[in-house]
């Protein structure tokens, strides 16, 4: 019997294929944390007397959640991270480098076949590069940084078959929202989703978005195979070599989900939950106060390039704020070199880089009382981006751009 | 045995509901300073009303969202004795075990329980009882290594006590 991607990766770490539901202890290739999860991890390392055991070759640190520091409290955390990195010789990506999940791919840590954990729920993003990547809390990350190991419950593996190409105006985000709407925010709890089928219709940036949001259905991991074409594309995109890793043709899955991409419409997740998905046409006309294009979900080159098609030669509606944050300095530079950044600045967007800030209500664009936002991020919980009465609609960069121009939720196909 | 009043919550209670990013990031590393913001946007006055041993009874998908371990630790810190839900999101589940906060998957108890009912939890026996409604439910026992962490009061306490990990 053939092996799934999950089984291939776990087999290479354990020397055997474990059964779903089994609890195993595995070695991890890398563990990473950021300024939101590091302080508690450091406290754990100290309280457990394990700080001196930290394995610098496996640990990567990011200052990306509240960066640059919006408060003295944040500045103190960043200071402590720099000191820790110096003391232990740990690689630290400081303010402005970018968001961890994006940088892990750009810097070549996310190589197919690796097992990587991060103290951030969106670590699943790396699954787009056939990495078994999953989010953990600070204690798990701290212990893994010191011992190189973690326990995990082997997940059931579910095949998600994607069919057809993407219609005009539809992006990876719409695929992710449609999937979560179908199976619900708890539809894949404890499971690993493996995406197959017509995946060649999806760019690497789109796959990263879909893997990123697989955790919004509760998934432990969301993996794409890396075939030869993807490996070549990724190598060109990130300037690093990527290997091929695919599941066997006769691999067996515990369940299957079908999704027809060619029949999708632009989607939104209406407040207050990610699985409250609707076609954009159902909520068209809702007035908005703020647009945010960015985050680990949709802060990539393709996201800005697509949004720019709508914003070019137009302006953000008066009275509406539009915040644009490329997910990394590398993305920022590419947008600069291609003139796309100029489109955003000319349209009246506030452009900055290197932070998760607005997505989680940390800084740069919190919402006031009753305000409404269209955001390309991954969560729209009550009060997520600011005041408890504010509302967030999640959408693709195309839908966000169209909504920025009109000042209300707008079907982007109108501009195509 | 854990015994306390029930706080009844619905489906998909997220880590943002428990401790919102805007409060967490204003305090950054200081866990103790965040206590007053637990459930701040969803249960007015929770912090003043919660009593040690109280139990949360929720629906599906409890702990949805962020990896922030603060969510589990803060529930423990305000005195919550256990969380009983129809299902848990996996990072929260791990964090709860590591923080020494008992998490129990149950179906009947969330169905029958009303706010303020008295709940008793017998972890090792895998039994939950709603004393007010006189309903008992046998639940799947927590796997042994995880139970041993819970009994120590969390992973750090376990390591301090035994000098190693339980696996």
List the helices and strands and how they pair.
The complex is a heterodimer of chains A (416) and B (167).
Chain A (H helix, E strand, L loop, with lengths): L4 H10 L8 E5 L2 E5 L3 H10 L11 E4 L9 H17 L2 E3 L6 H7 L8 E4 L13 E4 L2 H10 L1 E5 L3 E7 L8 H12 L8 E6 L6 H10 L7 E3 L4 H11 L16 E6 L6 E3 L7 E3 H4 L6 E5 H4 L2 H11 L9 E5 L3 H9 L2 H8 L2 E2 L20 E4 L15 E5 L1 H10 L10
Parallel strand pairs in A: 2-3, 2-5, 3-4, 5-6, 8-9, 8-11, 9-10, 14-15, 14-17, 15-16, 17-18
Antiparallel strand pairs in A: 1-7, 12-13, 12-18
Helix pairs in contact in A: 2-5, 6-7, 11-13, 11-14
Chain B lengths: L1 E7 L6 H4 L2 H7 L18 H4 L5 E3 L12 H8 L4 E4 L4 H10 L3 E3 L2 H5 L5 E5 L4 E4 L4 E4 L5 H9 L2 H8 L5
Parallel strand pairs in B: 1-2, 2-3, 3-4
Antiparallel strand pairs in B: 1-5, 5-6, 6-7
Helix pairs in contact in B: 4-5, 7-8
Could you please describe the fold and organization of this structure?
The complex is a heterodimer of chains A (416) and B (167). Chain A contains 14 helices and 18 strands. Chain A is of the alpha/beta class and 416 residues long. In chain A, the strands form 4 sheets. In chain A, strands 13-12-18-17-14-15-16 form a 7-stranded mixed sheet, sandwiched between helices. In chain A, strands 4-3-2-5-6 form a 5-stranded parallel sheet. In chain A, helix 3 links the parallel strand 3 and strand 4 (91-93). The radius of gyration of chain A is 20 Å and the shape is globular. Chain B has 167 residues and is of the alpha/beta class. Helices cover 33% and strands 18% of the residues of chain B. Chain B has 8 helices and 7 strands; from the N terminus they run E-H-H-H-E-H-E-H-E-H-E-E-E-H-H. Chain B has helices spanning 15-18, 21-27, 46-49, 70-77, 90-99, 108-112, 144-152, 155-162; strands at 2-8, 55-57, 82-85, 103-105, 118-122, 127-130, 135-138. Chain B has a 7-stranded mixed sheet with strand order 4-3-2-1-5-6-7. In chain B, helix 4 (70-77) crosses helix 5 (90-99) and helix 7 (144-152) packs across helix 8 (155-162). The longest helix of chain B is centred in the middle third of the chain and has 10 residues, at 90-99. The model of chain B has no long low-confidence stretch (mean pLDDT 93). Classes of the chains: A alpha/beta (416), B alpha/beta (167). Chains A and B meet through helix 2, helix 3, helix 5 and strand 7 of A and helix 2, helix 4, helix 5 and helix 8 of B.
């Amino acid at each position: 019997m053939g092996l799934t991607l999950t089984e291939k990766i776990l087999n290479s770490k354990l020397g055997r294929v474990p059964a779903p539901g089994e609890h195993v202890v595995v070695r991890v290739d890398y563990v990473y944390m950021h300024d939101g999860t590091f302080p508690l991890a450091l406290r754990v390392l100290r309280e457990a007397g394990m700080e001196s055991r930290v394995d610098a070759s496996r640990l990567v640190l990011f200052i990306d959640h509240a960066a640059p520091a919006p408060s003295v409290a944040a500045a103190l955390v960043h200071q402590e991270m720099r000191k820790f990195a110096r003391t232990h010789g740990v690689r630290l990506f400081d303010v402005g480098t970018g968001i961890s999940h994006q940088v892990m791919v750009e810097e070549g840590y996310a190589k197919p076949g690796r097992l990587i954990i991060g103290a951030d729920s969106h670590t699943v993003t790396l699954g787009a590069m056939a990495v078994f990547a999953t989010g953990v809390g600070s204690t798990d990350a701290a212990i893994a940084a010191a011992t190189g190991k973690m326990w995990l419950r082997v997940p059931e593996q579910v095949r998600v078959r994607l069919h057809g190409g993407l219609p005009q105006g539809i992006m990876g985000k719409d695929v992710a929202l449609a999937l979560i709407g179908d199976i619900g925010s708890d539809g894949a709890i404890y499971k690993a989703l493996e995406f197959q089928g017509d995946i060649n219709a999806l760019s690497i940036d789109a796959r990263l978005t879909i893997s990123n949001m697989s955790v919004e259905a509760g998934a432990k991991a969301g993996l794409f195979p890396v075939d030869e074409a993807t490996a070549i594309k990724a190598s060109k995109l990130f300037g690093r070599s990527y290997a091929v890793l695919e599941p066997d043709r006769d691999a067996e899955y515990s369940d299957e989900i079908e999704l027809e991409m060619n029949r999708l419409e632009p989607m939104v997740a209406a407040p207050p939950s990610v699985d409250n998905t609707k076609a954009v046409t159902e909520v068209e006309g809702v007035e908005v106060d703020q647009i945010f294009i960015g985050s680990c979900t949709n802060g990539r080159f393709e996201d800005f390039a697509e949004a720019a098609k709508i914003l070019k030669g137009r302006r953000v509606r008066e009275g509406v704020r539009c915040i644009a944050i490329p997910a990394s300095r590398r993305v920022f530079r590419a947008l600069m070199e291609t003139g796309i950044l100029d489109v955003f600045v000319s349209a009246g967007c506030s452009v900055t880089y290197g932070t998760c800030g607005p997505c989680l209500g940390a800084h740069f664009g919190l919402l006031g009382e009753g305000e409404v936002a269209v955001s390309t991020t991954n969560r729209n919980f009550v009060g997520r981006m600011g005041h408890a009465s504010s509302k967030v609609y999640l959408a693709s960069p195309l839908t966000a751009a169209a909504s920025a121009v009109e000042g209300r939720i707008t079907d982007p196909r109108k501009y195509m | 045995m854990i015994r306390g009043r029930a706080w009844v919550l619905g489906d998909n209670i997220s880590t943002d509901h428990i401790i919102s990013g805007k409060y967490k990031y204003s305090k950054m590393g200081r866990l103790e300073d965040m206590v007053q913001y637990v459930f701040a946007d969803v249960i007015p006055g929770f912090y003043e009303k919660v009593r040690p041993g109280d139990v949360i009874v929720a629906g599906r998908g409890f702990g949805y969202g962020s990896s922030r371990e603060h969510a589990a630790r803060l529930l423990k810190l305000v005195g919550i004795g256990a969380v009983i839900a129809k299902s848990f999101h996996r990072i929260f589940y791990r964090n709860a075990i590591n923080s020494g906060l008992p998490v129990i998957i149950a179906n009947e108890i969330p169905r029958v329980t009303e706010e303020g009912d008295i709940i008793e939890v017998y972890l090792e026996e895998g039994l939950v009882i709603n004393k007010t409604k006189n309903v008992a439910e046998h639940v799947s026992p927590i796997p042994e290594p995880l139970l041993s962490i819970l009994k120590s009061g969390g992973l750090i306490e376990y390591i301090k006590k035994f000098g190693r990990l339980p696996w």
